[in-house]
Amino acid sequence: MRILFLSSEVAPWSKTGGLADVAGALPAALASLGHEVRVATPGYASVPGEGLAPEGRPLTLSFPFGERTFRFLSTRPVERLTVSFVEEPKSFSRPGLYVERGQEYADNAERFATFAMAALSGAQALGFAADVVHLHDWQAGLAALALKRGYAKTGLSRAKSVFTIHNLAYQGNFPRETVPALGLSWKDFTPEGLEFWHQLSFLKAGLVYADALTTVSPTYAKEIQTREGGFGLDGVLRAHRASLHGILNGVDVREWNPATDELLPARFSARDLGPRAVCREALLSRFGLDAPKGGLPVFGVVGRMVEQKGADLMQQALPAFLEHGARAVVLGTGDARLEEGWRALARRHPKSLAVTVGFDNALAHLIEAGSDFFLMPSRFEPCGLNQMYSLLYGAVPVVRAVGGLEDTVKDLSEADGTGLKFKDPTVEGLRWALGRAVDLFRQPEAFERVRRRGMAQDFSWEAAARKYEAVYRSILPGSQATVR
Ligand code: ADP
C-alpha cells in the first residue's frame, strides 16, 4: 500500500507531545511491513535543516486569505519512508508550533488549512498516488473534507482516509467567519458537517468525512462515546462507532530502551538492574536533593502541566510524603498557574522536590531511569506514553485507571501486576495510591517483582502497525476485511 501521513508534529524533528512520538514511529513500522509511506508535516523554524533536500518544484495554493507558496523539503530516514516538511515561511517560520508566550497564534486556522492542502497537493504533484491518507488530530482535519468533497483544488483521486484522534480535547474550533475566510462552503457548515455549536471545527471535519476513525487505546475509544468523555462529540462518535477502532500506541524502542539509551549515565536491563542505581543517584545529585529517608521512594513526573494530567492533584497530595522523606523530580510545561504551583512547592521543599519548567528530552529519560515510581494521575488519558516508558525503565507507574492507562498498567492486586491504579480523580484517591506505593516500596522483594514484570512488557510498534494495516484494508475498494 501507499500511505500518506499528515501530522502537525513528528519526532525527532518537532514535538509537543505524544502525537510526535506516534508520527515518528508508526510510519517506520509500516514501512518495515513493506508499505511505501510518506509523512507530510509543517517545516517549523525549529526543525533542523540537516539532511533535508528540496523535492519537486514550488507550488502555490490560492485561498481567500491569500496565496501560499510552498515546497517539500524531504528526507528518507529508512527504506520506503519519506518525511516531507512543508516549507511555507508565512505560516511556519516562527518560534512556536501552535502557541507563543502562552497565546495561540491568531491565524492557526489559515496555517493548518494551508498545511493540509499543501500536504495533499504536494504529494499529488510528486505522483505519490496514496491508497490511504492517514490524518492525525484537528490540524489535519480539513484534508478529510478535501478528499471527500474537493477543497482548494486539492485531492488524491483514489485515496481513502483514516482520521486518528490523539486527544479529543483539542478540537481546532474557530469562529463561523472562518468558513468564508478559508474558502469553505456554507453548505458543509451544518451540525452533520463542520459545525460545532456555531463554530467551525477542524476536528469534526476529520470525524465526519474520514472513511475510518481510530483512537489510541481501546478504553479511550469507549470513553469518548460517553457524555463524560465525549467533549460534546460523543453523539458524532457513537454515530460512527462501526468504523471507530481503539489501537494502543507502541513505544519506539530505538529511543526508549534502557539497555541502549545513550542519554543515561548508565545502561541497565531487567537482567542487570545494578547500574540503575547510578541513574537514581545522578538524578538526585543533579538537583541537589537529599537521599530519601524513612524507607520512602523517589517519585518522577514528566508531562504537560495541565489539569488533564492531574498536576493540581499531585501538588496537593505530594507534600505530606515529601515531609516524611520522599523525594520527587518533576518536568513539564503548561498552564502558567500550574507551573507556578510547582515552583512554589519546590521553594518550600528545596531538598526534597526538584521542578524543571521546560522541555528537556534528556531529563525526561533520566527521570524514567532514576525514579522508583512514576506518577500519572490523569483525569483522562487517550493513551499516554510516559507510563509505558516508565514500565520499561523500571519506574513503577502510579496511574489513574482511565483511557490508555487502564489498558497498559495492571494493578498489583492482580497476580501479574505491573503498577498501581486508583479510580477517583481526587486528592484522596491519589494519596491512597501513593500510600500503597510506599507500602510496596517497603517490601523490596515484592517491589522488584512488580518492577521486573513492567520491564518485560512488549509494547512494540509492529503489533500496532498490523492493526492499522487491517483498518486500511477494511476501507479499500473491494475489501471484505473486517477489523478485529
Ligand atoms: P501527551 O501527548 O498528552 O502530552 P503522552 O504521555 O502521550 O502525553 O506523551 C508525552 C510525550 O512528550 C512523551 O514522549 C514525554 O516524554 C514527552 N514530554 C512531555 N513533556 C515533556 C517535557 N517537558 N520535556 C521532555 N519531554 C516531555
Estimate the mean pLDDT confidence: 96
Low-confidence stretches: none
| Rg estimate, integer Å | 23 Å
Count of separate DSSP helical elements? 17
* Overall outline: globular
In the sheet with the most strands, the strands line up as: 3-4-5-2-1-8-9-13-14
Number of strands: 20
What class, by secondary structure content?
alpha/beta
Estimate the strand proportion: 15-25%
Unique bound compounds: adenosine-5'-diphosphate
Span between termini: 20 Å
Helix content: 25-40%
* Biggest sheet architecture: 9 strands, mixed
Task: Provide a short characterization of the protein structure.
By secondary structure, the protein is of the alpha/beta class.
Task: Write up what this structure looks like.
The chain is of the alpha/beta class and 484 residues long. Helix content is 36%, strand content 21%. α10 (311-323) packs parallel to α11 (336-348) and α10 (311-323) packs across α15 (427-441). The chain is globular. 52% of the residues are buried. Residues 17-18, 21, 302-304, 331-333, 359-361, 364, 383-386 line the site of adenosine-5'-diphosphate.
List keywords for this structure.
20 strands; alpha/beta; 17 helices; single chain; nine-stranded mixed β-sheet; 484 residues; six-stranded parallel β-sheet; 21% strand; binds adenosine-5'-diphosphate; globular
What topology does this entry show?
Blueprint: E1 2-6, H1 18-32, E2 36-42, E3 53-63, E4 66-78, E5 81-87, H2 89-92, E6 99-100, E7 103-104, H3 108-125, E8 132-136, H4 142-149, E9 160-165, E10 173-175, H5 178-182, E11 195-196, E12 199-201, H6 202-209, E13 212-215, H7 218-223, H8 234-239, E14 244-246, H9 276-286, E15 298-302, H10 311-323, E16 327-332, H11 336-348, E17 353-357, H12 361-370, E18 373-376, H13 386-393, E19 396-400, H14 403-408, E20 420-422, H15 427-441, H16 444-455, H17 461-475
Parallel strand pairs: 1-2, 1-8, 2-5, 8-9, 9-13, 13-14, 15-16, 15-18, 16-17, 18-19, 19-20
Antiparallel strand pairs: 3-4, 4-5, 6-7, 10-12, 11-12
Helix pairs in contact: 1-17, 4-6, 9-12, 10-11, 10-15, 13-16
